[in-house]
Amino acid sequence: MRSMKPRWARATGMTMTTIASVFSARALRAAVALSAVAVVSVLGAGGVASEGSPAPDQIWRSIFARPAARAVDELEAKKQALGAMLFSDTRLSRDGDRSCASCHRPESGYSDGLRQARGRDGTALKRNTPHLFNLAEGKAFYWDGREPTLESQARVPLTAENELAADWARTLADLGADLDLRAKFAAAFADGGVSEATVIAALAAYERSLVSPLTAFDRWVAGDEAALSEQESRGFRIFVGKGGCVGCHGGWRMTDDGFHDIGVDSDDPGRSAVAGGAAGIPAFKTPGLRQVSKTAPYMHNGSLATLEDVVAHYAGGHLKRPSLAPNLVRDLDLDAQERSALVAFLKTL
After folding, report:
1. Domain membership of residue 242 as a residue range
2. Helix (H, G, I), strand (E, B) or coil at 162
3. Number of domains, the chain
4. Which helix (H) or strand (E) holds 161?
């Protein structure tokens, strides 16, 4: 009978028991599909190990390789440029003192460095500000995935009373009175008008353009063996091996776009409060790990201050409950050096 084990797992020596313990059912299916693509890619390049199995590093490089840059036509480029301007424009807020960039700061990986986002009155909101990198391929947005598109996502903070709270009549009048900006709207949109719909479309176009910069890990993926230090390389082996991190953080964006309960101490219902979410399971979206060293603190409520804290969480610091993601049934068993190596690798992303 043909083995059900993915070829990358056979090449790395992972048993089915190990695979089952680190992959959720959905993530495992995705990994198998990814590995199949990787095998075809590697074999096509002639990269075959001594016994006919693709070399593990070649498989991982295929899985984590960035896709070709998304093609953008002239009109889309104009929308992106307009969206970039609007992203930092305080005229979108009722009080004229806030913009999208107030919480999604480019210098902080499009997050804000705070445990929880701050509302109009300065009070803490419910959740940590997520980064905005690599959203073009995303499937659901916000920590609970309640918005299906970037357009619907962009609308929420614009109108939320505790965020920008835009007064659309006044906002559109102010933007329309700016002759230079009005000309940019006319160039970017066929109808040429400054409207709620075109403002939101421009912001969404800009968000789609935000791709995380190339890093040391990308250089390693491209074939540069010297791109990662010995410690960082060891951390990568832990990430894809005994750590099981790749079970949820696979692919070039380092996310399965899924929703999981990872045992964070919080009374937030997460995905369970959204239509289609599993009742009673406080699951949250798997964040992409690109630029993760710049987006502290971590988790949906910002409860973990450092990457070291995150590793400690998975090593047994999480709450134990029946709804935990399958790969958290066993605590992460890493010694101090292994934990340091894993953190060092995460900083290469």
Report:
1. 7-65+214-346
2. coil
3. 2
4. none
Neighbour count for residue 110 (Cβ, 10 Å) = 24
The torsion region of residue 223 among left (phi > 0), alpha (psi -120 to 50) and beta comes to left
Strand (E) or helix (H) holding 284: strand 284-285
> Given 165, 187, 208, which residue is the final one in a domain?
208
The model's pTM: 0.84
User: Tens of pLDDT along 133-184?
Assistant: 999 999 899 999 999 999 999 999 999 999 999 999 999 999 999 999 999 9
Do 196 and 226 share a domain, yes or no?
no
Describe the chain by its helix, strand, coil percentages, rounded to 5.
45, 5, 50
CA distance 230 to 349: 16
Ramachandran category for residue 342: left, alpha or beta (phi over 0 → left; psi -120 to 50 → alpha) = alpha
Distance CA 325, CA 112 (A): 28
Give alpha helix (H) positions in the chain: 7-12, 16-22, 25-44, 56-64, 74-87, 150-159, 168-176, 179-188, 196-208, 216-221, 230-240, 307-312, 336-346
